[in-house]
Amino acid sequence: MKLDFDLTLYLVTDSGMVPAGSTLSQIVDEAIQGGVTIVQLREKHADTSDFLAQAKLVQQVTKRHKVPLLINDRIDIALAIDADGVHIGQDDMPLHEARRLLGDDKIIGVSVQTREHAEQAVLGGADYLGIGACFDTQTKELKQGSQGPAGIRDVWEHAVEVSGPRPVRAVTIGGVNSYNAVHVLICTRTTRGNLPLDGLAVVSAIVAAESPRNAAAILRRQIAFAFESAWIARTPAARDSIRSAIGDAFEAARQNTPLVQHITNPVVINDCANACLALGGSPMMATDASEQADLAPVVSSLVINIGTLNAWQVDGMRAAMKQANLRNTPVILDPVAAGATKYRSQIVSEFLKEFGVHVIKGNAGEIAALVGSDEMHVRGVDAVGCGFKDPAGIVRALSLKERCVVVMTGPVDYISDGSSTFAVKNGHKLQGTITGSGCMTGTAVGTYVYAVAHTDPLVGAITGMVAINLAGEHAAQRPDVKGPGTFRAAFIDEMYNLTKEQLLAEMRIEQLH
Ligand SMILES: Cc1ncc(COP(=O)(O)OP(=O)(O)O)c(N)n1
Ligand SMILES: Cc1nc(C(=O)O)sc1CCOP(=O)(O)O
Asked: Do the domain assignments include residue 1?
């Protein structure tokens, strides 16, 4: 009978990374104690006798812990030590030959890079797939480059589709670590059925870690978080109590004073800091990469605004998002003028590949650029065009593509988590006459999203939109407001003065999906 196996945290070894004074067997031992559930011995440069000797040593450890041991590429070594199975790549022995030699009781995993590879492996009877490469890696030279979580999802979805009622099992590999583990597992869930990968495969994140045991334990914690996460695809029934949830999120900010860390542009930095304070948050505007790790433990949410992008800001943004992702702190991305220049488009696409972002907030032109629609465009920082035929559908499509909540601002704001989509019809046209009102919207979302992010970032995003738009309406009605200058000050005042009762009585939201 085939051994039951658990792919949750899959350690692939590389003895070239073992630090002086340590042995591979010790590392495997520690890693299993930290939570590794399956081990693959991968010796790319060892001759047969060294490989065999290493395999025997590592097998003593895996047997002691009752964790399966697979052998990379070498069926002969697997047979010699009676390993639990093998892992083979596209250039190795064909699956049917490996199966013939090993028999049905052994585990055979196959590396796949494309839908076609996945289909062949599934139909050929692979026990699991190793889909790669997720990210760039220092561990081996990649023939085809990395696909990012969205590319891995595409292959995984196809594998699930062709494997019928009992989906094949799969992990992804390549550049995976504790910082990006949650992002990878959330972003690779299938669109239909919301099916996650079975786990993650890593080499350097454990073998080269200072403490393989701690590294494995942190990875297990992150994987468990991702499996339990409700960040996407909630059921529409959960929306019944949306109004009271919005009221609760609004109040939570006033009670808990979330620390909203911004890396934003100098044009709006002061307005955003004041808006955050007025709504009940505590603004932090630290931009340097070197201080993000120290700040991260106390940050409630992170707002990344690419308004005046430059290389050192990008470094700070990367460092901050990496830390936020490790702590599962909500990240709000404002892709200002994405689509206006190649540089911005490229940076945003790299960010969305590498980091988990929980809310994207943009105007119609920015959202069009991210979703790949030519119905709207960006001119400078403004959206131009006649509008989307189906704005709610566009927002939902981007949400499903990026696996996050998407807010599209405009005369009507559209907000979707891919499952439910809402229109927020509050707001005043004077908001469009001052610089920074869009950026303050990102701040508002960041202020409210923290409290509910782990259960429902959609609620936090809608709360931010309703609160800021009501403040705009209230400010515009004031007799002392004569135009953009007086509106700007009154806008902050009305954020400060807004009450939960007003919010609940005056919000104009409509559920569209
Ligand atoms: C779990 C897992 N997935 C993929 C691979 C890569 O295997 P392969 O394509 O055979 O490349 P090498 O490992 O031989 O460099 C893997 N080893 N494990
Ligand atoms: C062994 C291997 N296979 C890959 C694939 O894409 O199939 S990537 C890879 C190396 C993964 O190492 P690390 O976790 O250190 O990035």
From this structure: no
What's the 203 CA to ligand 2 centre distance in angstroms?
Answer: 7
ipTM (interface predicted TM): 0.99
pLDDT digits (tens, 9 = 90+) for 351-363: 999 999 999 999 9
* pTM metric for this prediction: 0.95
Residues contacting 67, CB < 8 A, separation 6+: 32, 36, 37, 38, 39
* Residue numbers of the domain that contains 173: 9-228
Tell which one of 129, 203, 219 to mutate to probe ligand 2, the residue whose CB is within 8 A of the most ligand atoms: 203
Is the CB of 133 within 6 Å of ligand 2?
A: yes
223 with 251, same domain? no
- Catalytic-residue membership of 439: yes
Is 12 a pocket residue for ligand 2 (Cβ < 6 Å)?
A: yes
In terms of residues, how long is the chain? 513
Tens-place pLDDT, residues 336-389: 988 889 999 999 999 999 999 999 999 999 999 999 887 767 777 666 666 788
Distance 391 CA to ligand 1 centre (A): 43
Cα distances (Å, whole numbers) of residue 160 to 86, 99, 130: 22, 21, 14
Domain boundary among 173, 208, 228: 228
* Minimal-distance CA residue to ligand 1 atom 9: 89
Final residue in a domain of this structure, among 167, 195, 228:
228
Same domain as 244, residue 176: no
Looking at the structure, do residues 358 and 506 belong to the same domain, yes or no? yes
